[in-house]
Amino acid sequence: MKISWKTLLLLSLPIVVAGFFLWQGLLEPTTQTISNNITSSRMTYGRFLEYLNMGWVKKVDLYDNAHTAIIEAVGPELGNRVQRIKVELPANAPELITKLRESKVDIDAHPLKSSGAIWSLIGNLLFPLILLGGLALILRRSSTSSSGPGQAMSFGKSRALFQMEAQTGVVFDDVAGVEEAKEEFQEVVTFLKQPETFTAVGARIPKGVLLLGPPGTGKTLLAKAIAGEASVPFFSISGSEFVEMFVGVGASRVRDLFKKAKENAPCIIFIDEIDAVGRQRGTGIGGGNDEREQTLNQLLTEMDGFEGNTGIIVIAATNRPDVLDSALLRPGRFDRQVMVNIPDFNGRKAILQVHAKNKKLNPEVSLEVVARRTPGFSGADLANLLNESAILTARRRKNLISMNEIDASIDRVVAGMQGTPLIDSKSKRLIAYHEVGHAIIGTLLEKHDPVQKITLIPRGQARGLTWFIPSEDNSLISRSQIISQITAALGGRAAEQVVFGEPEVTTGASNDLQQVTSMARQMVTRFGMSTIGPLSLESEDRNPFLGRSINTGSKYSDQVAINIDQQIHKIIDHCYRTAIKIIIDNRVVIDRLVDMLVEEETIDGSQFREIVSEYTDLPSKPNYISQLSISE
Ligand code: ADP
Ligand code: MG
Ligand code: ZN
């Protein structure tokens, strides 16, 4: 665990400050009170003025900022004896002093009780003392704790920000679903443990391994696992920490890092986000970043400078391999590259199993079902999902995580926070028709994923949602599957139009239409699924981790562009007709489902199918096939 002293300071500051006020609060009241034991008799201010006029007042002692006075007076009422009497003075009586002077009364003003004043002085001095003492303690704490084994340590000497873990405590079993990468790394572990086996036959041990993959897939975890398995120290620094505003600091950090590593060899040096330093040199606005180039040069020099058998292996991670400087990828540097991808179904199941180990799951929870519902989730997403479910379980004061909490967490991760449902109104009915439209088409069309549930409880941007169960990880999708998906996605708008009429259709379908258009366009331009033929017209050289496509301009004639548009129209038009037909044909069951949905807000997939099957055959004997032959 690494806690910097800055965080400790920040954490402790409010406590110390609160302590200060408490302290002051304890001290102040004692300074305010005047010892009442001097006298028990009291006199009103008016009576006091009368006494003054009569010349009976001998002496006035003012206390408490002239709010109280103890007077010494003689008078017939007092039995002609000098008595001490307490008088409360009004807040604003400046003329009193003048009057007292005129009457030649002995006046004396007393400051706040002296012992109180001393205490308050001590209190004021004590606060900074406590603060300083606390600071010293924190500093000492953090410097002593860092020398223990297995602790993170920052090297103060050289402004370096890298961390060293003597033992990461992570093993390969903690990393799941990335079997190929693990195999590759098993070898690296052997290099570190028994280098002789390799050097004996003249093999050069690789110096660097580059881990490529999207965020959250376990790259950092894998690097730690290598160090853990080989029981060697783990030095880590992130690329963005290398690049600092001050010239030369990045380069000197690299030097320090390698120096320290050599002293501790065999070991692992892990450079996270290497793309921050390892970017193609000489690029960027204004001819590139000098500082970054120096850092990168230093890194390359260091990597060239140590022999393959010194027992240092540099592992770097990035999700932007496309921007890396080619010099980094040359043999003798990061000559091994390992891809870590978003896990597939089996990978997700394995990762869920790893993270379920320390969670209390209800025995009825099937991690297989969870894995099936979470395509596209990374390892970090899955870990987070189980954690969210555990938090939700605790909040519901249950002691076992059930499928219910896991489902709610998935919904939240995928679609956003849950909102409050609408009250029954025309717009609620319209949303219900829209969602039932999606669901019924998804159910009645062959080759469509089954409905998991329909709900009118808003989430994120959506005011209603139809969830489908992705049947398997389809890396290959057939043309008829895409056609079915387009048709079901148009089902919402189709239902609005059939039920409420063209003038009443809403903007609610805009997201659906976006998806539909994009799918149709890809059919034509990338998958060769239209009359234009098997051509790739828009080579979307989409990098799997960039997420965004860089369209490198069209490589076809205007004539082809017109043709593409026509094809897209044709596909969407065909699908929309099918959708309208299915809605009209099944209007009776749709009305019943909408009533039910408005009433209950959520309909489960199996319940939905059961009701639909009372009216029509389900597509085990498909009754609607969205046919559109390529040559049409
Ligand atoms: P990356 O470095 O690729 O962005 P991390 O290694 O930091 O991802 O992963 C973050 C967390 O997600 C890990 O600490 C771990 O809890 C979880 N995680 C990610 N991938 C896996 C995996 N393959 N197996 C088990 N846990 C994983
Ligand atoms: Mg990472
Ligand atoms: Zn919709």
Automatic annotation (TrEMBL):
<keyword id="KW-0934">Plastid</keyword>
<dbReference type="GO" id="GO:0010304">
    <property type="term" value="P:PSII associated light-harvesting complex II catabolic process"/>
</dbReference>
<keyword id="KW-0131">Cell cycle</keyword>
<protein>
    <recommendedName>
        <fullName>ATP-dependent zinc metalloprotease FtsH</fullName>
        <ecNumber>3.4.24.-</ecNumber>
    </recommendedName>
</protein>
<feature type="transmembrane region" description="Helical">
    <location>
        <begin position="117"/>
        <end position="139"/>
    </location>
</feature>
<feature type="binding site">
    <location>
        <position position="434"/>
    </location>
    <ligand>
        <name>Zn(2+)</name>
    </ligand>
</feature>
<keyword id="KW-0378">Hydrolase</keyword>
<dbReference type="Pfam" id="PF01434">
    <property type="entry name" value="Peptidase_M41"/>
</dbReference>
<dbReference type="InterPro" id="IPR027417">
    <property type="entry name" value="P-loop_NTPase"/>
</dbReference>
<feature type="signal peptide">
    <location>
        <begin position="1"/>
        <end position="19"/>
    </location>
</feature>
<dbReference type="GO" id="GO:0016887">
    <property type="term" value="F:ATP hydrolysis activity"/>
</dbReference>
<feature type="binding site">
    <location>
        <begin position="213"/>
        <end position="220"/>
    </location>
    <ligand>
        <name>ATP</name>
    </ligand>
</feature>
<feature type="active site">
    <location>
        <position position="435"/>
    </location>
</feature>
<dbReference type="InterPro" id="IPR037219">
    <property type="entry name" value="Peptidase_M41-like"/>
</dbReference>
<keyword id="KW-0067">ATP-binding</keyword>
<keyword id="KW-0812">Transmembrane</keyword>
<keyword id="KW-0482">Metalloprotease</keyword>
<dbReference type="InterPro" id="IPR005936">
    <property type="entry name" value="FtsH"/>
</dbReference>
<feature type="domain" description="AAA+ ATPase">
    <location>
        <begin position="205"/>
        <end position="344"/>
    </location>
</feature>
<dbReference type="InterPro" id="IPR003960">
    <property type="entry name" value="ATPase_AAA_CS"/>
</dbReference>
<keyword id="KW-0793">Thylakoid</keyword>
<dbReference type="Pfam" id="PF17862">
    <property type="entry name" value="AAA_lid_3"/>
</dbReference>
<keyword id="KW-0472">Membrane</keyword>
<comment type="similarity">
    <text>In the central section; belongs to the AAA ATPase family.</text>
</comment>
<dbReference type="GO" id="GO:0051301">
    <property type="term" value="P:cell division"/>
</dbReference>
<dbReference type="GO" id="GO:0009535">
    <property type="term" value="C:chloroplast thylakoid membrane"/>
</dbReference>
<dbReference type="Pfam" id="PF00004">
    <property type="entry name" value="AAA"/>
</dbReference>
<dbReference type="GO" id="GO:0004176">
    <property type="term" value="F:ATP-dependent peptidase activity"/>
</dbReference>
<keyword id="KW-0862">Zinc</keyword>
<comment type="subunit">
    <text>Homohexamer.</text>
</comment>
<dbReference type="GO" id="GO:0004222">
    <property type="term" value="F:metalloendopeptidase activity"/>
</dbReference>
<dbReference type="InterPro" id="IPR011546">
    <property type="entry name" value="Pept_M41_FtsH_extracell"/>
</dbReference>
<keyword id="KW-0645">Protease</keyword>
<keyword id="KW-0732">Signal</keyword>
<dbReference type="InterPro" id="IPR041569">
    <property type="entry name" value="AAA_lid_3"/>
</dbReference>
<dbReference type="GO" id="GO:0008270">
    <property type="term" value="F:zinc ion binding"/>
</dbReference>
<dbReference type="GO" id="GO:0006508">
    <property type="term" value="P:proteolysis"/>
</dbReference>
<dbReference type="Pfam" id="PF06480">
    <property type="entry name" value="FtsH_ext"/>
</dbReference>
<dbReference type="GO" id="GO:0005524">
    <property type="term" value="F:ATP binding"/>
</dbReference>
<feature type="binding site">
    <location>
        <position position="512"/>
    </location>
    <ligand>
        <name>Zn(2+)</name>
    </ligand>
</feature>
<dbReference type="InterPro" id="IPR003593">
    <property type="entry name" value="AAA+_ATPase"/>
</dbReference>
<keyword id="KW-0132">Cell division</keyword>
